[in-house]
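Page 37, continued from 36.
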Protein backbone atom coordinates (compact mmCIF):
# COMPACT_ATOMS: atom_id res chain seq x y z
CA UNK A 1 0.00 0.00 0.00
CA UNK A 2 1.65 3.20 -1.20
CA UNK A 3 0.33 6.70 -0.80
CA UNK A 4 1.07 8.98 -3.75
CA UNK A 5 0.57 12.62 -2.82
CA UNK A 6 -1.12 14.69 -5.50
CA UNK A 7 -2.12 17.66 -3.42
CA UNK A 8 -1.78 19.28 -0.01
CA UNK A 9 -4.11 22.19 0.66
CA UNK A 10 -5.07 24.24 3.64
CA UNK A 11 -8.72 23.73 4.24
CA UNK A 12 -11.41 24.59 6.73
CA UNK A 13 -12.37 21.46 8.61
CA UNK A 14 -15.62 22.92 9.89
CA UNK A 15 -16.71 24.49 6.62
CA UNK A 16 -20.46 24.52 6.49
CA UNK A 17 -21.53 23.11 9.80
CA UNK A 18 -20.10 25.73 12.14
CA UNK A 19 -19.96 28.64 9.77
CA UNK A 20 -22.37 30.78 11.73
CA UNK A 21 -21.31 29.77 15.21
CA UNK A 22 -17.56 30.14 15.22
CA UNK A 23 -15.51 32.99 13.96
CA UNK A 24 -12.09 31.42 14.25
CA UNK A 25 -12.48 27.99 12.81
CA UNK A 26 -9.37 25.91 12.61
CA UNK A 27 -7.58 25.87 9.32
CA UNK A 28 -6.03 22.53 8.83
CA UNK A 29 -4.22 20.75 6.05
CA UNK A 30 -5.87 18.26 3.82
CA UNK A 31 -3.84 15.61 2.07
CA UNK A 32 -5.09 14.38 -1.31
CA UNK A 33 -3.47 11.17 -2.43
CA UNK A 34 -3.77 8.09 -4.56
CA UNK A 35 -3.60 4.91 -2.59
CA UNK A 36 -1.85 2.19 -4.56
CA UNK A 37 -2.78 -1.33 -3.65
CA UNK A 38 -1.81 -4.18 -5.97
CA UNK A 39 -1.78 -1.92 -9.01
CA UNK A 40 -5.17 -0.36 -8.24
CA UNK A 41 -5.31 3.34 -7.47
CA UNK A 42 -8.01 4.87 -5.33
CA UNK A 43 -8.35 8.58 -4.64
CA UNK A 44 -8.46 9.43 -0.96
CA UNK A 45 -8.12 12.36 1.39
CA UNK A 46 -7.02 12.70 4.99
CA UNK A 47 -6.45 15.50 7.49
CA UNK A 48 -2.83 16.07 8.44
CA UNK A 49 -0.87 18.31 10.77
CA UNK A 50 0.99 21.35 9.44
CA UNK A 51 4.27 19.56 10.05
CA UNK A 52 3.24 16.51 8.06
CA UNK A 53 1.87 18.76 5.31
CA UNK A 54 5.32 20.23 4.74
CA UNK A 55 6.86 16.78 4.36
CA UNK A 56 4.08 15.62 2.08
CA UNK A 57 4.35 18.72 -0.12
CA UNK A 58 8.04 18.00 -0.61
CA UNK A 59 7.19 14.59 -2.03
CA UNK A 60 4.16 15.69 -3.99
CA UNK A 61 3.63 14.25 -7.45
CA UNK A 62 2.49 16.36 -10.39
CA UNK A 63 0.48 15.21 -13.34
CA UNK A 64 2.47 15.77 -16.50
CA UNK A 65 2.18 14.88 -20.15
CA UNK A 66 5.09 13.13 -21.79
CA UNK A 67 5.83 12.23 -25.37
CA UNK A 68 7.62 8.94 -25.90
CA UNK A 69 10.79 9.27 -27.99
CA UNK A 70 10.40 5.75 -29.32
CA UNK A 71 6.82 5.65 -30.55
CA UNK A 72 5.76 9.30 -30.28
CA UNK A 73 2.82 8.33 -28.11
CA UNK A 74 1.52 10.76 -25.55
CA UNK A 75 0.73 9.76 -22.01
CA UNK A 76 0.27 11.36 -18.63
CA UNK A 77 1.97 10.31 -15.45
CA UNK A 78 2.42 11.53 -11.92
CA UNK A 79 6.01 12.59 -11.33
CA UNK A 80 7.96 14.69 -8.83
CA UNK A 81 8.14 18.43 -9.45
CA UNK A 82 10.60 19.60 -12.14
CA UNK A 83 10.78 16.21 -13.78
CA UNK A 84 11.16 16.58 -17.54
CA UNK A 85 11.90 12.99 -18.45
CA UNK A 86 9.84 9.99 -17.65
CA UNK A 87 12.00 7.21 -16.28
CA UNK A 88 9.62 4.29 -16.37
CA UNK A 89 8.48 2.55 -19.50
CA UNK A 90 6.08 4.05 -22.00
CA UNK A 91 2.55 2.60 -21.66
CA UNK A 92 2.26 2.37 -25.46
CA UNK A 93 5.42 0.62 -26.59
CA UNK A 94 7.08 -0.35 -23.33
CA UNK A 95 10.36 1.44 -24.15
ZN1 LIG B 1 6.47 4.60 -26.50
Amino acid sequence: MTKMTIGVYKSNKNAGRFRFHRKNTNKIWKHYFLDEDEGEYTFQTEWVSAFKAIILKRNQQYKKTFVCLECGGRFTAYVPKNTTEYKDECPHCGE
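The two ends are 26 Å apart (CA to CA). Flag for discussion at group meeting. Residues 4 and 34 are 5 Å apart (CA to CA).
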